[in-house]
Fold each of these.
Amino acid sequence: MAIHAIDPLIQSDDLVAAVDLGSNSFRMLVAQAVHTPSGTQLRPIDTLRESVRLAAGLTEHKLLGNDAYQRGLTAIRRFGERIRGFDTSNVRAVATNTLRVAKNSQQFIEDAQVALGFPIEVIAGVEEARLIYIGAAHEVPAVQGNRLVVDIGGGSTEFIIGKGYEPKLMESLYIGCVSHSMQFFPKGNVDAHAFKEAELAARREIQVISGAYLRSGWKQAIGSSGTARALAELIAANNLNGHADGLTMGRVNASGLITRDGLRAMKKHLLKYEHVGQVELLGLKDDRRAVWPGGLAIMLAVFDELGIEEMEVTDAALRSGVLYDLLGRSQHHDMRYVTVEQFMQRYSSDREQASRVGKLAAEFLQQLPKSETESRVDNVALLQWAANLHEIGLSISHNGYHKHSAYIVGNADMPGFSKNDQARLAALLIGHTGKLGKLANNASFYDWRMLFCLRLAQVLCRGRSDEDLPRVRVSEREGVYQVCISKEWAVTHPLTEFSLLKEAAEWVRIGRPYELSLK
């Protein structure tokens, strides 16, 4: 585990922390947000890294084996000690590819959240790519025009083209240094045929996206995080200048640059050996040795398919991006609002109706009791996003539109949203109208109060008008939802009264008491 000492003069209240549960390593960055007239910068205070090799612990049935499971939890407990006492709003923890694909990832996440003491988000590949680009863009020198960022992780590789701080093209491919090494170099055995197969397999994956990326073009190529940094350091430490006669050991050049010649020289040197354990290279760390051949093969494929001659390297990657995104949320530059806005535009949502339903649903939620663990601000935001998106399925079909809305939100790439965010939104959308039985048997669904508010608002706003909406009081006592509306108003709105009675009956049907009071 790598540890950088902290500054004792800096108080924990001033700090933010990002936790990255990667497929090869678990990492944590603690930083101080420094606000300047030109913008906010992060001053790193403390970093922790543990080589967990989670991807190597996946069984053939896509389950995390017990050894990897326990290695992960042990590392997370140590991380949890470091950030104990931090405010929840100052910490963001994300999990990547292996925890996207492992069938028992939900159980691991639940155990890991207890060990860490903070929520953990499993993020989609494209969201990972977005955050990687944000982190790299804030740390590397500015460039006129497009920038390409490539991040080879343990289980996936992200490719991003952006301009300034904004990503434009984002892809995540299922090739990573751990998974590739396990597939092509089992037990550390190396030969020319296996290496060629590893390169070709990576090239086939990259060919799917290379056309669009080459058409877009870039002025600067950046390799971010672990694999890229390790390759650059090995090239520099061993003076891999591309000469065919091998290595000149012991001379150290400036690190931070990967060249095509350097990669080829490294490959030639590797193939002198039959096993990675035999390889002699200055700076080749033991915890990187087993996954280095797979990372090298992928990087060579990247260079060949995208026509790259040299690539700059930065330590900034997912963790930095997570923190800049976290700061953006606190400063009202939340990418999730942008994403919802884009979806509303793409699917031609009725903005007035979405606003009407969202405003009323939020008013109802604010009337209900708040538990000690609830983040009311976050739930109000989620509820309003659900209202904004509840009718996007109408662009497909009016019949069962809520199912289409839920499917889109549950399966689309939604920058800024975690997998859990999307799952919660999709559940609210599938449940905002119609039968409740589809959610009653879902043990993982817990947003019943929010669903109550959304469904009630949707019923009352059926007329799609701000005029003549009733004054409504809602409450919840001992598990019973109570809705109070003027009897006089109900008499003049028989359709709404009938709909409210049906709504109450639907909740009672699933064992959740619901009282409609007309006074």
Amino acid sequence: MAVPSPTRSADPIPEGRFHAMPMDERTRADVERAEAAIVEHYPRLVRLAHLVLPPAMGRHRRVLTAHGIVQRALPSTSRERARAVLPGQRGPRPEPGYPLVRARVLELALAQAKPPRWRSPLPVVWGLRLFPRAGGADELALDQALSALDAPARAAVALWHLEELDEDEVVAVLGAAGVADPGAAQRAAVALGPGTAALLNSGEFDPCTVQARPTDLLRRRQGRRVAIAGAAVLTAGAALLAAVGGPDGPPPPARPDPATVRARQALDPQRLVRAPDDAWADTSRVDFTAWSPRGEYAGDTALLGRALRVWGAPGPDVRVTAADGTSTRPPDQPPRLLYGGVIDGVTVVVLHDGDRLVRYAEPEGRPAELEFARVDNADLTTAGALVIGRGTGWMRYLIAPWITDTTTRDLLRPGTPEKVLHVAPDGVTDRIAEPPAPGAACGRWPVTRLHSSARVTARHSFLLTDLGDLTPVHLTYGPATGGGPTAAPPAEATTPTALLSWARTACSLRQERGAGVRSVNNWVYARQRLPEGGAAATWTCSRADTWRGPGRVTVQFHQAAAGPARPARTVGRARDTAACSPYGPEVVGETRWRAGSGHWYLLAAGSSAVRGLDVTGAVRRTTHDTTLAVAVPANAPVKVAGVLPSGGLLHAMRR
């Protein structure tokens, strides 16, 4: 995650604010939206509450209290009034209900700083102590620094570094939560300096990824003896009553619990679902449900049984990883078998339960591994392959049975020819180089092109790339529109124009690694002629859609004369937003540019859904065009906004 700068400016807030609304006027739909926000952002809200809670509570109670606060943050329709909350932004706009829920979580967490008159109910965990994983020296130093802050200051740290609000928004949210001096709290958050955001996103501060240890075993043993003695008395009495019987004789034997029966059947290897070999050619649902089982061990019942048992109850030594927003719960029905075999000396089983892919691995000499990825609503392209094995700097795909040809290429070199990628009879590809990790030099970006069988669709191919998850990411391209009100529908990124666009922006994909991304679309939303006879420039909005639903966007600026291999300049970012999609076709970007003469210019561009641009600050300028170039001093403070058809303003997206 990019570390925010203490001097950054926030993404703009549109005109107008939400108003406080009496709780008795809030509809059921409002409450349902708040519930959806809690479910969608549960880990994010729990981390926020955990950071605000007093460290003196102890690690175990602090974890449970954070979960309890978020679970009690759902608004009720019977309370008197709701506090006013900041609106979501038009660019990085949270889904409806999130600002209200966040404000409620802050109120409850801040209230814990004062000794409560009564203990709030907590999730029950018998016999276990729960606490986040220990971090390194940097995390420990940050934890000590946070312990020295009061609750409002810790809340400001969370809003500033985790929620990525700007200074005014942090102060407003804290004020709405009842903080007496929100300005002082914000200054304390800024004083922690850069690097804090990255550390706060580590396991040390994650109350949703915890370690478990036993409580006092001797005290539990004494309590258990008392409980056993009492249970023995009750059992003897029940046995006496059963022997005497009632007027109808002894009671009938208890029927097995249906839920227990279903859980046992879901983990039975004999009940695994197996699709026929050609199911993909005779169905209208071309996704993971049409995959037939492959691999030399697809019939090994012992191996499949081990995989299911570990999935149902992973031991303490099993390494479990999951893509962002993916559940690791056991299956509730028999899953589908996709693969069973050996990949580079590692025994691998891949299962699919309708919503998730599960990769079970038995590395030689090491404990078993489980990897989960969300794949609900997968389609022909997003179910075209999965990552079956990894090593240092390389990976392999298991491709869908409807794929006929597979090639690879370097996305940073659009003019070089593709290379054929060999695929084994069981669908496993040769090794493919991994794209560069965050922080590494971006000198190449391998992608794979898959061609679908004509039995599914004629002449269809698409690009996939690996971003560290079990499922690869589908890359698409949106060409510049011809003045229409909406963005052009995404097309496959296989044409020369699309490849050239991706050559300039591929390196920005590093920030999406491990984020559960489903697809990324490169939309060229504007083209502009540069001042002083300069070459043409391109404005691109790259939208990364996750399997969870929310998307993140990156606005980039590129000079055509700079060459295809030179990366575009990132000028704006936003997350949890509908921008750059059919539901948010309005986007505005701005940047500073220096001409060959040495003069500085403010460049701005809006999409075709914007009716003009407005510049305020050190320079005043208004235009009805979607692009603008104004001579300005290098550091002159200016603000750019797009004029919407409704007359409202949409501020330029910033980093």
